[in-house]
Amino acid sequence: MVYDGRPCTVQTTRVTMNLQQKALAIVIPLITLLTAGYSYFVYVTTSEHIEQIVATEREQLHQQHTHYFKMMIDQRYQHELRQLLITPGLVDVFARQDRAALLDLADPVWRLLRAENPNVARLHFHRADGTSLLRVHLPRRYGDDIAALRPMLQTIHANHQPISAVEMGRHGLFYRVMQPIMVDGNYLGAVELGLSMKFVTNALRHMLGIESLILIGHKALEAYDAPIDDTVRLGDYILWSSSSDIRKGLDALQKGFDINQDANVITHGTQTHLLHTSHMPTIEGSPKAAMLFVQDLTPYIEKRNHTLFGAIISAVLVVVIFIITLRLTLSPLLSNLVATNRKLSEKIDEVTRLSITDPLTQIFNRVQFNHSLSNAITLAERYNTPFSLLMFDLDHFKRINDDYGHPAGDRVLIQTTEIVTRLLRSNDTFARWGGEEFMVILPHQGVDEGRIVAEKIRTLIADHSFDGIEHVTLSVGITQYREGDDIEQILHRVDINLYHAKQQGRNQTIADQD
Asked: What is the pTM of this model?
């Protein structure tokens, strides 16, 4: 018998085919299982990321909302009223009930406040008996018993203490600050500033980059003449006003919204929104008021779905590639896996970078700054080392946008970050806090060293020639970490110092000891 090798070749081929079939029978279900597991992992991980975004946004909104009312409205405009009351002769003419003389003294202050902020809508002097002495904004109308409708006036007439709150008037909703007028311990009356709620919503949108709406408790509105839109009811509240076209979609949100929850995730068609509720300060007897912050979660949801779809498609492709490469060679598969892993790593790096970077200036954003500040406090506590915090703000930046356009304003922000970045050390943290406000963390430097850096920054900006813009300056607040400080305390101090720098004329540096 002649052995030509063919039986052996056939047998080898059959063994190879059987091995391939067994491998496919084992590997394909395994890959399918891994595919399902990976897809589920991607879905869960992305969902947890969205939940983390919700929690972070809610906490930041609460902190910023509280900070805004305390610092940017209460303290500022209470200060303005105190300054008004020390105007020479003003309290005397108020005591004499001399309306003409009082108007002469108060009107310049009123015009100045209106020039700085057109949303300052009311300046009102009240007699202790509850009647109106002088509406500076409407001087011909006076003498009415306004306290009968205004719980805030009843409160200040009773306890003679400064007060700030949101309150409904006959013709609208205002954030009001009041100061008592006292002479030798005797209460003569009160003075009031009223700010339009449009100012509050616009300022919060500018500061936080998020839309907001105002809700009013509808049970106590019958006595007021202001127009109320009661077509949108959310629990015990109705919509008072909104700051964007999001109002048009609120009708569909009523069914799933719970005013008693801090956050609601509402899906309507292809849109998903996160609604944060924050109650505003009011006086007992006045209608309740709340702010509803509306954040569009649709991009995050779409990203999650696209990621899940991409994971499934990628897994199917892996199965196909595996079958082909198993019949040919494993090398191309291994090469593809290495390339895919490298691309995935690059994409992760890119996503990570984008998540902590301000898209305009390419420096750290607020999320990364908060993380860096928390780390700086931890290191300072652990090793007893100092660090200082700088907060600077471009002066009159709104004028730049108004006079030269927003593209010019963006160029100023970009050039400012480039100048400051060149000045700072590699271990300093430089971040955009929001709008035209920036933060700098200086490790191992106290407030004196921080002042030197701040002055260099201020001088460089003041001396720099920005393209097509006449002159740009900035104001700086500085503080140093103190033992026991938390994030809120150190941010509060640096914000106060920046506020004082602004109040004292801008283009200057104010530190703790100042």
From this structure: 0.47
